[in-house]
Design brief:
Lipocalin, alpha+beta, about 280 residues, 9 helices, elongated, single chain
Length: about 280
Amino acid sequence: MEKHQPGPAADAVNRQQQPGMSGGVRFARWLAAVLMIAYGFAKLNSSQFTVLDSEVTKPMGEVSRFWLTWYYFGVSTVYGTAIALVEIGGGLLLAWPRTSLIGALVLLPVVANIILMDILFGIGALPASVTVLICLLVIVRPQARRLADTVLLDVEPSRMARAVRSIVVAAVLAGAWGLSYWVANYQNRSPTPIDGVWSVEDQASPLHQVFFEYNRAYMAVFRFDDGDNVHHFEVGSNGQVRVWETWLEKGPLIYEGEIVDSGRIELRSNGDGPRIVLVRD
């Protein structure tokens, strides 16, 4: 039997059904590819993730969200290079119709994360990242049904199985919430009336500040000229303040004193050493 050979009309239909063949998808592929490859090389060539010395030397609380984010990503060359290679690799995959869908799926979470950083940390590249996101959605949309059929399993559980699963999921959610709440409020935190930042009244003292940490139970950080010392502190019901050498393990008692009022603490080193007066910042 002679095999049927598809004619020109069938070839045209097949070409229209192939990914990346329409003009809109082709334009989206190339626009997203160019932008992602450019951003990837910007990281490799150090035109991104670089920080000014004037920003690095500021106290962290005074640094803007943008510079904090830029420093975080730039502090590790390996991490920045990995991000760059993903962007360049995804862009190259977009350049060929056969691999364009893979490239779009690789880049979608990357670009979604970039958009979140642009919005939440004030990076300032939102128009470009939104443009890439739209392009990727244009590429993925013709294959949405095929992707759904691939990733969604055709499973029909029994009513009993659905009920058991719902109970287990509810238990997992409740357990995860309860554990994290306990860690945050009963392990990480044990609030005291002196939590916060305190300065030493004597300007000539090598001790400058004391931090009674709210987010680390019993942790006191004493800041000296030559660095920080981490100690263990507790506040008694009578306003007595005691500081031990080692956080959580205590060790030798090194400071003892009392809360004078809401903005003043008096301590003595080793119980009978020179008086240290702390005032709340």
